[in-house]
Amino acid sequence: MNYLTYTEYETSLKSIETENYLDRIFFRPIGFLIAKLLSKTCTTPNTITIISIFIGVAVGPLFYFENFYYTLSGILCLIIANILDCVDGQLARLTDKKSNIGRILDGLAGDIWFAVIYISLALRLKNEFNTWLFFIPAVLSGLSHLIQANITDYYKTLHLYFVSKEKGEEFQNHDEIRSQYKHMKPGYRKVLLYIYAAYTSIQETVTPRLQLMLKHLHAQYGDDIPEELRKDFRRRSKRLMKIFIDSMTFNGRVVILIIAVLTGYIWFYFLYEIIILNIFLVISIYLHEKICMKFI
User: What distance in Å separates the CA atoms of residue 285 and residue 273, rounded to the nearest whole number?
Assistant: First the structure.
């Protein structure tokens, strides 16, 4: 990849700092090549997102069957869906077709995939053990996943906010989103924004010290936070991303999911999601809140 191409590749990313290892070496480079080709067409990022949803939803039924070839097909669909999930954002940045609705739809895509996957795995376990009780861990896994994805996205966007004003433009608070919601005309966009407002409300509720830090920095510096403070926060935040935050991303959980479906130990994935990843979530929030107090 020559210098000009690499510069364009970096432009297609939110920030190289927030990308985890698998994304950097596999998903994002492939996504960039596809986005580059699509940028010469009239294809919109939202179209790619919708296609990724259909492919991702197919994973659940394929994982339902205890068949090796169906399982491999499901894994392939999951990989393709995630590549397309990269493509939509990279295409939006390359063509400057970014929008709040696109970002919300992109966030919902993964939630829809995994909702169908959890239901399918619960049905598979029900057939195997002849009990509906496995829907309890499936529901708990789904709820855990939603909260983990919510907070993970928040911390990554927060990190971007400390990279630069431009990179952090997606970092919005609940009041700003509610204001946008009130002035929107009725329709599906307003429904999506309402969901997003609820999404940000949860983020702000579980991070009280972070909210104090943001108010303190805004009162002291406005939108011009000194570069020294930005770098200091990013250094501390990046350390946590590598250890805990990345474990709660798609790449962090899908490795365990693939092992579970290939070995047939589906219940192990539910335990991993409910216990291990929630422990990581609690630790992440605690350590981030501790970092925020250092900046007040």
Answer: 17
